[in-house]
């Protein structure tokens, strides 16, 4: 296990996770990726698609902002990397403006 540090994408607080060095990180995002299944930092997250982190929890250096962000691991389907997608939270399709 190694200690790996991540930065909250909203407030830049630093979070440290103890994890297997062989895991491949894809991204850190403020929103969950569509189809990804997340585990908590205190769970066995090596078999999940990523980790759901609360900024300001015990893994955080300092106070943090209290909001959730996501560490996403690289995932494969039949040997090909799965492209990550997010659903926009505030999508607007008003094309008549």
Residues in helix, %: under 10%
Q: Could you spell the SSE succession in H and E letters?
A: EEEEEEEEE
Helix-strand category: mainly beta
Rg (C-alpha, Å): 15 Å
User: What share of the residues does DSSP label as strand, in percent?
Assistant: 35-45%
Count of helical regions? 0
Describe this structure as you would to a colleague.
The protein has about 100 residues and is mainly β. Helix content is about 0%, strand content about 35%. It contains no helices and nine strands. It has a four-stranded mixed sheet with strand order 3-7-5-4, with no helix packed on it. A three-stranded antiparallel sheet has the order 1-2-6, with no helix packed on it. It has a two-stranded antiparallel sheet with strand order 8-9. The model has no long low-confidence stretch (mean pLDDT about 90).
Highlighted features:
97 residues, mainly beta, four-stranded mixed sheet, three-stranded antiparallel sheet, globular
């Amino acid at each position: 296990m190694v200690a790996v540090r991540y930065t909250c994408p909203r407030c830049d607080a630093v979070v440290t996770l103890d994890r297997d060095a062989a895991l491949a990180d894809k991204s850190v995002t403020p929103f969950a990726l569509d189809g990804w299944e997340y585990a908590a930092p205190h769970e066995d997250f090596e078999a999940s698609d990523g980790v759901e982190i609360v900024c300001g929890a015990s893994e955080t250096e300092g106070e943090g902002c209290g909001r959730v962000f996501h560490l996403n691991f690289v995932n494969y389907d039949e040997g090909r990397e799965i492209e990550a997608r997010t659903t926009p939270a505030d999508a607007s399709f008003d094309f008549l403006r």
